[in-house]
């Protein structure tokens, strides 16, 4: 078993360098079990920048009271995804769509294609077009408005993006802009990766789910009738612009769905963040601006750090999929779009936690805490009754984390904030969990 602990730094837009200890990662692998263990639950605090904005290089900070940020500048928080010459910023703040510079600095060339859906377009398309063109008359903007819903995350709908791009005679200097939730972000990013073999794109996520998870890290793709996200590419954006004001129009169900991914970060790698969530969940559900901004920032820091260390999901990044193997099976089994992604992940997380407990890897109080916070978040804690053991097994057999015929899972192990990505587990525990949650 090898361990590595190095120093990271928080680089500000001044010459100041503040050393930050990066958490240790413990990897151990054999040809038998491909077992990876990840531990990361002690993050030191960092100072707040007085420069134009702080540039957080893929690190996480100690949980702080978000109300302390109310007196800070209205300039956005910027979390940097550190990928060498492909690094990019995540801008987080209120009213960012009214500040054109943040978008315009990342547009390449003079042609832009905005990809959005019929729900988001009436709300924010005009505002985004204005932000792209204000004081910038040389830029022309086209748009394609797709149907809304997970059931449209398919090849037929994707072709509508290519049709519009080709009909508009866009060239390799164009920029695609994803305006919407996770479905739009995934599809626009995949289209950008393939159009003319790759053009620039920008993410403008408008849901909690997309803001805290899917817009960050460059995973793009579409679903297949046999499995979720099986067709896609790793393709990083030029930037992610998170205007937290877009959450004002988000339905309550979508808000709760996104919180499933927020909870995930606390369970797998950030115990203090989970404890903060337990105390502040009602504020999040009530859309308290400072609480939401803090949860988004903290989630992005966690995601950015993992992506910077394992962009192509060779091991560590897979830990971000806690509950997703079970959850994807639910989405497929009931029909894409019937359950929201976060709802399926929440039920899948409960199943993963149940299995972790059956293996003796976590204690009973942690099981209860997981159930309690998901219930508090108004999320499901069990799959729908339609799901059977055979349905779970058939979909899980084609999961992206299957390697050499072995289903690998992300499970909790040890104290809160620790998890493993492994294929080395007692198959009886998996069978027992499936039978416990399914009638047949």
Automatic annotation (TrEMBL):
Protein name as annotated: 3-dehydroquinate synthase, chloroplastic
Write out the function statement from the record.
Answer: Catalyzes the second step in the shikimate pathway.
Reaction it catalyzes: 7-phospho-2-dehydro-3-deoxy-D-arabino-heptonate = 3-dehydroquinate + phosphate
Q: NCBIfam families, from UniProt?
A: aroB
Q: Name one GO molecular function term.
A: 3-dehydroquinate synthase activity
| Record EC number | 4.2.3.4
Instruction: Tell whether Heme is among the UniProt keywords.
Output: no
Q: Could you mention a single GO BP entry for this protein?
A: amino acid biosynthetic process
UniProt xrefs under InterPro entries = Dehydroquinate_synthase, DHQ_synth_AroB, DHQS/DOIS_N, DHQS_C
